[in-house]
Design brief:
The complex is a heterodimer of chains A (120) and B (80). Chain A has helices at residues 3-14, 31-42, 56-66, 84-93, 95-103, 109-119, and strands spanning 17-21, 48-51, 73-76, 79-82. Chain A is α+β, with helices and mostly antiparallel strands and 120 residues long. Chain A has one domain (3-119): Glutaredoxin (3-Layer(aba) Sandwich), CATH 3.40.30. In chain A, strands 2-1-3-4 form a four-stranded mixed sheet, sandwiched between helices. The longest helix of chain A has 12 residues, at 3-14. Chain B has one domain (5-77): BolA-like (GMP Synthetase, Chain A, domain 3). Chain B is 28% helix and 25% strand. Chain B contains two helices and three strands. Chain B has a three-stranded mixed sheet with strand order 1-2-3. The mean pLDDT of chain B is 88. Classes of the chains: A alpha+beta (120), B alpha+beta (80). The A-B interface holds A 32, 60, 63, 67-70, 80-86, 89 and B 47-48, 51-52, 55, 60, 62-64, 67, 71, 73-75.
Chain lengths: 120, 80
C-alpha cells in the first residue's frame, strides 16, 4: 500500500465525515468544492477537510481509492457518498439528512430545511 | 482541448446504446457541460454506481489537469 493510500484510509476511518476538496473548508479554491463545504458548514456538520492541492499523492490517490475521477469527494462513516452533483441532489431531497441521522452524525435540521426552502 | 457536445454524447452512447442522453453546453466555452443520462441499466444501482459507469464510458476524458473535459455536471437515473 502506498503512503498516500494509507493516509487516506486512516483519515476516512478516524473521522465520521471527510471532505476531500480543493482548498480548505474556510477557503475553498474551486466552485464545486466550495458548494459541498458550504452545505456542510451551513448545516453545522463537524467534518475533516483534506486539501488535495497540498499533496499530489493524495490528489491522485483519492481518485484511485474511490474509482471516481473528480474532486470534491465526500465520505461518511467510511463510505464514499458522492461528488458535487450527488451531494447537491441528496441535500435537496433530504437523503443527506437521513444518512447523517442513520450514521449518528450531528447536524442542524433547521439549516438543512432552509437550504431546501431557498432552492425548492 | 475542448470537446464538442456531440463527442461527449457519442462516447456515452457507445456504452449506453439505448439511453436517453441530453448534453448541454453550460457556458458556451466547450469546457463546462451538463449531461443527463437515463438508462434502464441504472435500475437498482445507487447514484455512485450509475455515475461511475458514465465516467468509465468517458474513458479518462475527465481525468486530472490534462483532462479534455474540465467540468461535466452529471445527472443519472433509471427510466420511470
Amino acid at each position: 500500500m502506498s503512503e498516500a493510500e494509507q493516509q487516506i484510509k486512516q483519515t476516512i476511518s478516524d473521522n465520521d465525515v471527510v471532505l476531500f476538496m480543493k482548498g480548505t473548508k474556510s477557503m475553498p479554491q474551486c466552485g464545486f468544492s466550495s458548494r459541498i463545504a458550504g452545505v456542510l458548514n451551513y448545516m453545522g456538520v463537524e467534518y475533516q477537510d483534506v486539501n488535495v492541492l497540498d499533496d499530489d499523492g493524495i490528489r491522485q490517490g483519492i481518485k484511485d481509492y474511490s474509482d471516481w475521477p473528480t474532486i470534491p469527494q465526500l465520505y461518511v462513516k467510511g463510505e464514499f457518498v458522492g461528488g458535487c452533483d450527488i451531494i447537491t441532489e441528496m441535500t435537496l431531497s433530504g437523503e443527506l439528512d437521513q444518512m447523517f441521522e442513520k450514521g449518528g452524525v450531528g447536524f442542524d435540521k433547521d439549516a438543512a430545511d432552509k437550504i431546501r426552502e431557498a432552492n425548492g | 482541448m475542448p470537446m464538442q457536445a456531440n463527442e461527449i454524447e457519442e462516447l456515452i452512447r457507445a456504452s449506453f446504446p439505448d439511453a436517453r442522453i441530453t448534453v448541454t453546453d453550460l457556458a458556451g466555452d466547450g469546457n463546462h457541460y451538463a449531461a443527463e443520462v437515463v438508462d434502464a441499466s441504472f435500475k437498482g444501482q445507487n447514484r455512485v454506481q450509475q455515475q461511475r459507469a458514465v465516467y468509465a464510458a468517458l474513458k479518462g476524458k475527465m481525468d486530472g489537469n490534462h483532462g479534455e473535459l474540465h467540468a461535466l455536471a452529471l445527472t443519472t437515473k433509471a427510466p420511470e
